[in-house]
Design a protein that fits this description.
277 residues, alpha/beta, single chain, 4 helices, 16% helix, seven-stranded mixed β-sheet, 17 strands, ten-stranded mixed β-sheet
């Protein structure tokens, strides 16, 4: 499969107000689809991204490009968890490009990416921000389904991020492990130490030191079923979690996301109802 999705939003002429954002371009190629659920309690348009194929395997390709125009604001969210199935050798290639114009706001809210034993994923996410723009973005990885006793004994995870501000690279990170190295990394005490799920939240915007203090306070008060930490690198706020199951991470993830969207843009302390399902 070779699916793609290209979405562009523009702001209204009367100023940088996310509530005035309008869709100006949509191009989609199967199995990728964009849905536009009615979410009146979110304060901005919500795009639910789905793949009608039910999952991906080796040799599949998909690309997603989202542009938020000057003064516009929107949220893009997976309709449900994405599944990557076993491959006989070929890789699943995923390319995500997020482009924010001046004074724009984007929330790239993840659902889980579930990696089955033998999956071979190579994903690249690029976030480009113009002056005055800000974003929340992230990912949640599940290394097999704990409830079914699944484990990763081989496969490939190559998950890379790049964030550029005003055309200059601000932060880059890649999680890479393959086959024997993958199982070693999942179990090694200085790596994932047996965690079956990991997550990352990225916030680029203003007043990050104040946001970091608040985030650390929230993490310290969270449940003991997970490990989490937060820091700032080159004006990028980063939060990471490790846990035995993604369900242990989601309450903390949601609380931070809602609080940050409220403090950064004055948006309602809500998430779409189907994210909680």
């Amino acid at each position: 499969m070779d699916g793609s999705l290209d979405i562009r939003f523009a702001g209204a002429a009367d100023g940088p107000t996310p509530g005035n954002t309008r869709l100006i371009h949509l191009d989609q190629r199967a199995p990728m689809r964009a849905l536009f659920p009615h979410c009146p309690n979110m304060g901005l348009p919500v795009t639910a991204i789905t793949a009608t194929c039910g999952g991906f395997t080796g040799g599949d390709r998909l690309s997603i490009a989202i542009e938020i125009g000057e003064g516009a604001g929107a949220m893009a969210i997976g309709q449900a968890a994405e599944k990557l199935y076993r491959s006989t050798g070929a890789e699943t290639l995923i390319d995500v490009r997020l482009d924010l114009k001046r004074d724009a706001w984007l929330e790239w809210l993840p659902q889980e990416t579930i990696l089955f034993d033998g999956a071979r994923m190579r994903r690249r996410t690029t976030l480009s921000l113009a002056p005055g723009s800000a974003a929340l973005a992230g990912e949640i990885l599940a290394f097999g389904r704990q409830a079914r006793g699944e484990e990763l004994t081989h496969g490939l995870i190559h998950d890379g991020w790049q964030i550029a501000r005003d055309g200059k690279l601000a932060w880059a990170d890649t999680f890479h492990a393959a086959d024997a190295d993958l199982t070693a990394m999942l179990g090694h005490p200085t790596a994932l130490a047996g965690a079956r799920a990991s997550a990352m939240l990225i916030h680029v915007g203003a007043n990050l030191k104040q946001a970091l203090d608040w985030v650390r306070e929230k993490l310290n008060a969270a449940n003991n079923a997970m490990r989490a930490a937060a820091t700032i690198v080159n004006d990028v706020l980063l939060v990471r979690w490790l846990a035995d199951d993604a369900s242990d991470i989601r309450p903390s993830y949601a609380a931070l996301w809602m609080g940050l969207r409220a403090s950064a843009r004055g948006l309602p302390v809500n998430l779409p109802t189907f994210w909680h399902a």
